[in-house]
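Researcher: Structure for this, please.
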Amino acid sequence: MNEAIGGKDLVELFGIYRAEWLSDALFKLFSRPSYFPELETPRPCVLEGGRGTGKTTVLRCLSYEGRYALEGAERAKLEDWPYFGFYYKVNTNSVRAFQGEELSERQWQKLFAHYLNLILCGRVVEFLEWHRKVTEGGAQLDPALCKDVAESLFCEPAATQGELASVIQQGVRRFEAWVNNIDPDNLPGLSMQQVVIETLCNGVLELRQFKGKRLFFIIDEFENLLDDQQAIVNTLVKHCGPGYTFKIGVRELGWRRRSTLHENEQLQSPADYERIDINARLDGEQFVKFATEVCSLRAIERFPNGLDLDAMLPALSVEEEAKLLGVDAKAREMLDELERTAPERVAVVKDVRPLELALLLYWSKTQKQPLADLVADWEQHPQEWKDRFHNYRVPLLFTLRGSRPGVRKYYAGWQTFTLLAGNNIRYLLQLVGEALRLQREDGKPANGEEIRPLVQTNAAISVGGKNVKELEGLGVHGAQLTRLVLSLGRLFEMLALEPELRRPEITRFFLPEDEPLGSVEELLNAAVMHLALVRRVSSQRTDLDLKAYDYAVHPIFAAFFGFSHRDMRKIRLSPSDILNLMRDPKRTIREIVRSNDRSGDAPLPDQLRLFENFYGRD
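Model: Predicted structure, token format:
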């Protein structure tokens, strides 16, 4: 096993979850997702998913470096590979330099198109040099082609492949320095977009080593490109040649411009590319299976047959959780009241489960009906009450502890962790890693042993809190996203404390059709792109504007606030509600809660006291 991961305990192995941190160990820990074969086809592909969904890992493993590392030098047979991928990660520092008042937008586009020619051609020639070193009789470009490519890119002359690699690298650095010290009156020579890329790729595919092969340009973090730069890449995708294609990784809503340089020419799926939505492809059991494979790979040195995640992260039944939350006290309270008001009815419910007694007590208080009448109804209509218990047994858990300090709801079990992660592998690794860390801090072994439900719950609360704090550093909307999540999280927590009798477990919201979105539109887009919110197409709508979606706070925050991580019912929020939640959270939350038949008053849970000033603002 790679030294970067060998010899470490599970806490350390699960604590490394970003592809950038893993270095070469990334390939040792790669688990092939179910959609991977679609990326290997000749079609252009757009891989879409939030941060932490595994885009970078998958795209790097699609590159020639990744495949070579996965197979190992002894087993790799390059002559049998059907394709070779060249990975390029969009660097914000570089691409954002191509803007400013010094030049027009079209001039900046031409400069960026030339820069992209340099970058992508450089990746191809770097690959050829690598291929020459790792194989006998490695590939060598024709000297005439080397000369032609160098001249087309306005680089120094090059007569050999090695010289071409060197002059392109020099050309990139020289051009970057010129852009950073731009002189509008002395523009450099610029290559025509895509022409030199196609010339070079055709020359590569004519070499005997690459006859019948395909070439992939892999562009990661596409969302970092400016809108006019996205149009340039779109044009490359639309008009790519028969032997090469593009594989693009982008966050949800990060592909802001779909047109090419011709405004009336749009990229459309499936005609021009294959769209692969990670969240849709790795949903439900698919994600559980994928996550199990990823976690087992992390622990393969100690558990060669796979890590038993269900045993390490045991779940609680509803009844077990209710007992931990104090349901016996509620049941005793119900029986005591019934003994005072209708002692003849006590015998009817003496063998009823505590959580069912708690439901009868809750129903009596909220509906203002005598317990004796409800017990009589329960006896006369058993099926109706059975259905009611089925619908309310989970929402009822949030009410058992009331305002008392401590855990109000447990978040335990491998399946629960996968739901909290929301199809996001990075979040899943954070949850497991934090549970292992807290287990070790608790003085217990952290190498696959059972982790108590309370420790699991505290881990989920901790991870949710850390990700709330991280939102503030995410782009220009960071502070707004933090306020939005804090407000919505508190709102859904308060709704969970009082499950309304017609619609228990509210976890989503939708926007009205008849109100303009205004500034909320940009905020919602940023919230979805940065995983503050998740969205899904409403089952009641067929159009696909922003109002056609149902929104929810990402489930990774559920334990931190104390609401359900399940995808359940929804309420209506207007654009003004959303703005007011950030401007005046205390008053707005109270108004929304009361408009949904709740009291609107509840003390902050312990973990939210860090934000007491925010919630206390009037």
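Researcher: Any notable elements?
Model: The chain is about 50% helix and 10% strand. Residues 1-7 have pLDDT under 50 and may be disordered.
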